[in-house]
């Protein structure tokens, strides 16, 4: 029962239109701690957090996890909408700032056929997005 409520809390945060932050995930972290829930995050996310943010907090991993899921939902929706409009290509865009990683940089501004485009987000910290191409 506790897990169902937790999953509902996480889903509601993913579905919200608001910006994700440690503050916005705090109620979820409190619920996990107060109910002594051993929530199992994906192993590749845990590895990413250990590598990039040694000593990360529950709030931080929740923030990254929920942001990834929120971006994934947006990206699927964007591709579905492009298909509905019979568009054939999309460009992968980055946030174009100093925090772009090598993985994102190699896809930046490349145009792909919709059926061949890499799935976004590319990794847990990815901020790339699709830009439909009208030809």
The helix-and-strand class reads mainly alpha
- The overall average pLDDT, rounded, is 90
Count of structural domains: 1
Report the sheet with the most strands, covering strand number, pairing sense and barrel closure. Answer: 3 strands, antiparallel
Alpha-carbon distance between the two ends? 51 Å
Query: Helical proportion?
Result: 40-55%
Give the spatial strand order of the biggest sheet.
Answer: 2-1-3
* Overall radius of gyration: 17 Å
- Give the H and E element order: HHHHEHEE
Describe this structure in words.
The protein is mainly α. The chain has one domain (2-133). It contains five helices and three strands; from the N terminus they run ααααβαββ. It has helices spanning 2-15, 22-34, 43-52, 58-84, 102-105, and strands spanning 89-93, 111-113, 129-133. Strands 2-1-3 form a three-stranded antiparallel β-sheet, covered by helices on one side. Helix 1 (2-15) packs antiparallel against helix 2. The radius of gyration is 17 Å and the shape is globular. The mean pLDDT is 90.
Quick structural summary:
By secondary structure, this protein is mainly α. It has helices spanning 2-15, 22-34, 43-52, 58-84, 102-105; strands at residues 89-93, 111-113, 129-133.
List the helices and strands and how they pair.
Layout: H1 2-15, H2 22-34, H3 43-52, H4 58-84, E1 89-93, H5 102-105, E2 111-113, E3 129-133
Antiparallel strand pairs: 1-2, 1-3
Helix pairs in contact: 1-2, 1-4, 2-4
Keywords:
single chain, 135 residues, mainly alpha, 3-stranded antiparallel sheet, 5 helices, 3 strands
């Amino acid at each position: 029962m506790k897990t169902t409520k937790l999953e509902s809390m996480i889903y509601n945060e993913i579905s919200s239109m608001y910006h994700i932050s440690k503050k916005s995930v705090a109620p979820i972290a409190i619920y996990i701690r107060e109910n002594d829930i051993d929530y199992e995050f994906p192993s590749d996310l845990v590895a990413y957090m250990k590598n990039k943010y040694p000593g990360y907090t529950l709030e931080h991993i929740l923030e990254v996890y929920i942001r990834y899921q929120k971006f994934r939902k947006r990206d699927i929706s964007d591709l579905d909408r492009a298909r509905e409009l019979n568009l054939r290509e999309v460009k992968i865009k980055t946030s174009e700032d100093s925090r772009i990683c090598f993985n994102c940089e190699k896809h930046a501004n490349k145009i792909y056929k919709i059926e061949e485009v890499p799935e976004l987000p590319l990794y847990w910290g990815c901020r790339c997005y699709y830009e439909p191409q009208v030809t």
